[in-house]
Amino acid sequence: MTALLTYIAAEMRHRWRMVRATKDGGYTTEAVVATAVLVTLAILAIGIIYTKVSGKANTIDLG
Length: 63
Hints:
Layout: H1 2-21, H2 27-58
């Protein structure tokens, strides 16, 4: 059991060093967060536009 824990700890340290050594390790996370923010803003804008257009369309007198 001790050998397994030692191996897992060594592997985690190795992988952590590999991630830290890359210059663009955080780029993917930043891109995902930026994309999520832009999608949220787009959905909000579509909702606002839909509300205004449907409100204006309901006030049109057709006859």
